[in-house]
């Protein structure tokens, strides 16, 4: 049951329902910021978000999907409250939430199915449930066992949030349907006007510096959305399956999918920027003066050059400059769907390969570092599972995982020569960086083909027509790494033998 018949509105306006639905959600998120600013208590703000998000959900989806999110959220909240000290509780929450999401996602379904349905807000909610569970568990651990980031995000179990506060966090209106995700501590600071959201100037009524960033964000969002509308019809991924595509040279084929990936990225960039604007408008995007966000583990958003200025990029979900000019696949993925990447990092990767702590022994640090490769593959597997069950998704994320692992090979064997100022190769560092950018953007556009076409057959057909250049490059790096490792081990053994002979003499 829906509140409105969007298909009638879509047919009347000529706008596809898949475009109209998120458009309505974004427009409503901006409008809802007007009454929200007149609410001051955490209870009223939480209730407003729950009510507004529920009505907004029912405007584009059905009531059954809303009931599922409420039931799942309540179940995960109960688990965290019931067993806050157990390390298995966050794992149970992740398993339960992802399993429920999996039941909603369509297994090997029709590739013509709309990508904007009620699973989108559930995907965002799943992230929040996981981070909440980990924050509760971390709140019961000794602080010496936690990283600086984990310490900043812990939830005190002695003042455990009420179910209303928790649902207000899950249903926070500007980010409930389209995201981005965030941590409970950040949400609680916002609705209680504490932490970075506390007004230092008592005479001021709103947080400073909002309007320039908001105007910039909306302008970028609208421009990129228009760019996607203009380019996408001329660069469909399905053309790679056409017989005409085979008549093109390999360079033209690769170039085609490079532009197609740019057009596809513009769609996500536009939606994320407009969604970020709604968070900025209500004040939630505020970070503070200069510095970095407290939940940015990798210090990716540190802005020392802006020290003293007001920063509003807390809800930034894409860093376009870093994404279009990355030096390696890791930089690309850290700038794409930023909040989801942070969720995967804090809830999956760093739980398998923890950050080094001051009190750890060298052996413990080495053990954590040795898990990095396994943690990378598991993280990508969870990401694929979270996205859905199209076989193309798994081909895509497996390829990305191999790209990240192969990038470690170049960093281990090549990068030191170019970054060593005493090496003659240091003069060629700009060329090394350019080649790294070139390899990254073309390998990413190559990998994206499988995700966009969704099926194994279609993805492999196009990859075959591109001579599997992405996978061939990965294979070459792995083989080179194996040869170098064997050669170094052999040299090391020979050195030991020579030294032992010299000692005998």
Give a quick summary of the entry.
This protein is mainly alpha-helical and 505 residues long. 66% of the residues lie in helices and 1% in strands.
Fold and architecture overview:
The structure is a single chain. The chain has 505 residues and is mainly α. Helix content is 66%, strand content 1%. The protein has a two-stranded antiparallel sheet with strand order 1-2. The N and C termini lie far apart (90 Å).
Low-confidence stretches: 291-307
What is the radius of gyration?
25 Å
How would you spell out the order of helices and strands?
HHHHHHHHHHHHEEHHHHHHHHHH
Number of helices: 22
What is the tally of beta strands?
2
Note the topology.
Elements: H1 6-13, H2 17-31, H3 33-36, H4 42-60, H5 63-82, H6 88-104, H7 119-138, H8 148-153, H9 163-170, H10 184-191, H11 210-231, H12 250-282, E1 288-289, E2 310-311, H13 320-324, H14 329-335, H15 338-352, H16 362-370, H17 372-387, H18 391-413, H19 415-419, H20 429-453, H21 456-465, H22 469-504
Antiparallel strand pairs: 1-2
Helix pairs in contact: 2-12, 4-9, 5-6, 5-7, 5-9, 6-7, 7-15, 11-12, 12-20, 15-17, 17-18, 18-20, 18-22, 20-21
Which descriptors apply to this entry?
505 residues; mainly alpha; two-stranded antiparallel ribbon; 2 strands; 1% strand
């Amino acid at each position: 049951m829906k509140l409105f018949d969007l298909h009638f509105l879509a047919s009347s306006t000529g706008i596809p329902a898949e475009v109209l639905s998120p458009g309505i959600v974004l427009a409503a998120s901006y409008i809802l910021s007007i009454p929200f600013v007149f609410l001051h208590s955490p209870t009223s703000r939480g209730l407003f978000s729950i009510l507004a998000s529920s009505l907004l959900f029912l405007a584009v989806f059905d009531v059954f999907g809303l009931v599922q999110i409420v039931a799942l959220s309540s179940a995960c909240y109960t688990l965290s409250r019931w067993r806050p000290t157990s390390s298995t509780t966050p794992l149970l929450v992740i398993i339960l939430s992802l399993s429920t999401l999996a039941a909603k996602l369509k297994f090997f379904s029709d590739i013509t199915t709309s990508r904007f349905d009620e699973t989108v807000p559930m995907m965002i909610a799943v992230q929040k449930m996981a981070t909440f569970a980990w924050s509760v568990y971390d709140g019961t651990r000794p602080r010496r066992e936690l990283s600086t980031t984990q310490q900043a995000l812990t939830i005190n179990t002695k003042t455990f949030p009420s179910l209303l506060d928790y649902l207000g966090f899950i249903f926070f209106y500007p980010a409930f349907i389209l995201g981005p995700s965030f941590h409970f501590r950040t949400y609680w600071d916002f609705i209680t006007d504490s932490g970075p959201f506390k007004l230092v100037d008592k005479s001021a009524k709103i947080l400073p510096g909002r309007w320039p960033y908001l105007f910039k964000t909306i302008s970028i969002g609208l421009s990129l959305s228009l760019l996607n509308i203009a380019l996408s019809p001329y660069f469909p991924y399905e053309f790679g399956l056409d017989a005409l595509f085979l008549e093109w040279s390999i360079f033209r084929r690769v170039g085609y999918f490079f532009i197609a990936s740019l057009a596809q990225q513009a769609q996500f960039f536009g939606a994320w920027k407009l969604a970020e604007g709604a968070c900025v408008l209500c004040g939630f995007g505020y970070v503070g003066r200069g510095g970095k966000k407290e939940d940015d583990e990798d210090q990716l958003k540190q802005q020392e050059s802006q020290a003293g200025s007001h920063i509003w990029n807390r809800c930034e979900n894409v860093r376009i400059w870093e994404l279009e000019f990355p030096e390696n696949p890791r930089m690309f993925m850290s700038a794409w769907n930023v909040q989801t990447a942070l969720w995967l990092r804090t809830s999956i990767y760093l739980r398998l390969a923890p950050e080094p702590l001051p009190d750890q022994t060298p052996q413990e640090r080495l053990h954590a570092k040795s898990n990095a490769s396994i943690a990378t593959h598991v993280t990508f597997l969870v990401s694929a599972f979270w996205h859905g069950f199209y076989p193309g998704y798994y081909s895509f994320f497996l390829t990305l995982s191999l790209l990240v692992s192969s990038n470690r090979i170049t960093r281990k064997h090549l990068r030191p020569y170019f970054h060593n100022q005493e090496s003659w190769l240091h003069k060629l560092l700009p060329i090394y960086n350019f080649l790294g950018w070139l390899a990254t953007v073309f390998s990413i556009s190559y990998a994206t083909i499988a995700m966009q076409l969704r099926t194994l057959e279609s993805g492999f057909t196009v990859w075959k027509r591109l001579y599997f250049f992405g996978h061939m490059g990965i294979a070459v790096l792995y083989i080179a790494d194996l040869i170098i490792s064997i050669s170094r081990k052999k040299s090391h053994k020979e050195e030991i033998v020579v030294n032992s002979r010299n000692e005998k003499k």
